[in-house]
Amino acid sequence: MGGACNMQCEYCGHNERARAEPLERIIANIDDAARLRAPSLVFTGGEPTIHKALPACIRAARDLGFSAVGIRTNGLMFVYPDFVNRLETSGLSFIQISNISHAQTAFDAAAGVPRAHALVVQGIENALGAGFDVSVAMRVTRSSFSHIEKDIEFVLSAFDGIRSIVLRMAGFQDATLEPAPVQGMEERLPGLMAACHARGVALCFEPFAGVAPCLFRNPADLLHLFRYPAAAYFPKPPLAKKPGCADCPLDTLCNGVAGEYSHEAWPAHEGGVPQRVAAAIARAGVLRKAAPGSGSAWTDHAAEGHALTISERQTSSGESEINECILRTNYRCNEDCLFCFVDTHCAGPSDDVIERSIETIKQSGKKISIISISGGEPTLNPRLEEFLDMLRDVNAAEVCLQTNAVLLSDPAMAARMAAVGVDSAFVSLHSHDAVVSDLITGRHGAFHKTIQGIENLLAHGIFVYLSHVINSFNYATLPDFVDFVGANLKAAPIVFSFAAPHTDEIMLGGAIPRLSRVRGPLKSALDMCLDMKIPFSGLPGMCGLPLCIPGPNLRYFPDIHLVDQDSLQGVMHKNAGCSGCSLNRWCYGVRVLYVNKYGDAELEPVRISGLEPRPRDMHSRMDFFKSFFTQ
Predict the structure, then answer these.
(1) In degrees rounded to 5, what are phi and psi of residue 372?
(2) Where on the phi/psi map is residue 426: left (φ > 0), alpha (ψ -120 to 50), or beta?
(3) How far from chain centre, in Å, is Cα 87?
(4) For residues 58 and 54, what is the distance between their CA atoms, to the nearest angstrom?
(5) What is d(CA 267, CA 271) in angstroms, rounded to the nearest whole number?
(6) 102-133 pLDDT tens trace
(7) Average pLDDT in the 432-437 region?
(8) Which residues on adjacent β-strands are paired with residue 399?
(9) From CA 5, how far away is CA 49, in angstroms rounded?
(10) Short-list 228, 296, 250, 236, CA closest to 39
(11) pLDDT tens by residue, 587-615
(12) How many Å apart are CA 360 and CA 366, to the nearest integer?
């Protein structure tokens, strides 16, 4: 809101005589942010509380749909109760106090305001008393880090209800200030994290401020210090990276380290931060989903727009039949996968909508390859067995339950699914490592329940194939996953897909790796599947990969099919060279949102004279997998 400020901190360039932003420009900026559908808005400066139009700007942000509106402030103005009340009635919801210290005299001198420390303390107390969500930022330099324990203990003792303490690393832009030492941070921060946690306060680094996990020997000890807001509108200044950073599972999140740290040893850099640590940081630190009621299509039109999806195809004889009916019985889920596109906040379709959808399927009059019962997690619907029973007389080659199988760890439930006519189960399993799997799905203990659910389904004669979504936290261990499936899950077929960036938030949320990084591990995994006689599919599709990524070997694409290229406009992308690729007619290309971030240089045309793939014409997916090695 302009550069004016009512403090004169020695390390800051703002001053009381600086120009304030005109109201018209502020309102225009708010409107621009609203167009991005940002879930929250923060006013900053200078010092935003001295701008006379602040209450009006807060109201404008609320009127434009922001679910949370905050300010970054030095807190001086909050000493006035009437001012606090004005901001409260305007719709302000959260506050970050820009700086605080235990040392009153030093704080007053640095601020250039008499009794500044006492005034800020009173302002924080007033803000907390008014019910605001309050966090405190601490500037961390080599000098201030020497007494950081006292600063943090002061905040924990003086204020009841502080949400978080943010470590704002300083010294990078000011030659007179040195950054805090890495070794000292590694030794002392775990204890400070524990002290904060014991008081219900989060301690974290300011996002994208120049401190990366790989600077530390044991980044697992500092997991919750790292925050990576994923929204496209969050500023991420480019910092120093090393060539090997591309191998790190956090490469899509991390913007590197500050120049002052770039010459230090990066102990966890070689080979990248371990997958378990990377997945834990992503789970704890990524702002991934918009708040409930954000006005998404899922929320507004869930029942009408998403309950039933029907896709058709032409058989080799020219006959039209239904390829797949996807019936979503609910959108709630007992997991929360980092890359999932389903809005689990929205209301699921009503029973009437589901019953009408089933009637639509019955009246289609066409052969149906597969009816997929999906969600969310369909086993959470209390009427699931009734709905399945209604589908018994439908002319479908296969009725498939798309599930994470967590509730099917109960043998009785697996038996009931077989009893009501479920032929197959498409089970989500995104890692062979229990820790990584649980971090990806967001549910502790889910991995073991899913494995038990798979065993129960197989025991009751239900055919199982696995959904394995390739993402930043499992791509490097794709061969290990194949080995696990062969040794522990009776060589169940695997449907490989690639985490799809349906929104900017998913694309920038850290779960989407570079295609070129996936190529090597994926080809090794596919070769292992062929050697171990594990059927697989999924790569030629909108949720698959450009066919040039695994390469031109047609044995990697057993489910290849011609693609209506016109249907891809606006969603998928191909580069200038794709038109000359031998696989162009069979390839979907890459998601537009992926290209917006990474470009399309990874797409390299395959040129093989006379290449003509021969698709398998199978009536059901189950038959396709059963006959995989007999064709």
Answers:
(1) -105, 120
(2) beta
(3) 33
(4) 6
(5) 10
(6) 999 999 998 889 999 999 999 999 999 999 99
(7) 96
(8) 371
(9) 9
(10) 296
(11) 999 999 999 888 999 999 998 887 778 77
(12) 11
Same fold, 1-110 and 297-626: yes
Please report, for the chain, the start and end positions of each structural domain, with discontinuous segments joined by +: 1-110, 147-286, 297-626
The span from the CA of 608 to the CA of 580, in Å, is 10
Identity (one letter) of the amino acid at 172? F
447, two tokens:
């991995």
- Closest to 406 measured CA to CA, from 380, 372, 384: 380
Taking the C-alpha atoms of residue 237 and residue 247, their distance in angstroms, rounded to an integer, is 21
In the numeric block, the tokens 């997945």 are attached to: 279
Which of 378, 590, 562 has the alpha carbon at shortest distance from 501? 590
Sign of CA dihedral 49, 54, 59, 63: negative
- The yes-or-no verdict on residue 541 having pLDDT over 70 is yes
Bigger pLDDT: 617 or 470?
470
Cα→Cα distances 78→14, 45, 72, 381, 500, Å: 19, 16, 12, 49, 45
Confidence of residue 13 (pLDDT cuts 50, 70, 90): low
Q: Compute φ and ψ for 529, nearest 5 degrees.
A: -55, -45
What are the CA-CA distances from residue 221 to residues 97, 216, 251 (Å)? 27, 9, 20
Q: How many residues does the chain have?
A: 631
Give the C-alpha separation, 539 to 496, whole Å: 6
Retrieve residue 457's tokens: 């389904």
- Cβ-in-10-Å burial (0-12, 13-18, 19+) of 625 comes to buried
Beta-carbon contacts of residue 473 (< 8 Å; ≥ 6 apart): 249, 275, 278, 279, 282, 338, 431, 436, 439, 440, 511
- The fold adopted by the segment(s) 1-110 is TIM Barrel (3.20.20)
Concatenating the DSSP letter of every residue in 598-626 gives: H-STT------TT--------S-HHHHHH
User: Using one digit for the tens of pLDDT, what is the confidence trace for 146-199?
Assistant: 999 999 999 999 999 999 999 998 765 566 678 899 999 999 999 999 999 999
Residue 73 class from Cβ within 10 Å (0-12 exposed, 13-18 middle, 19+ buried)? buried
Strands 228-229, 202-205: pairing is: unpaired
Strands 590-591 and 572-573: antiparallel
CATH classification number, 297-626, choose in 3.40.50.1110, 3.30.230.70, 3.20.20.70, 3.40.50.720? 3.20.20.70
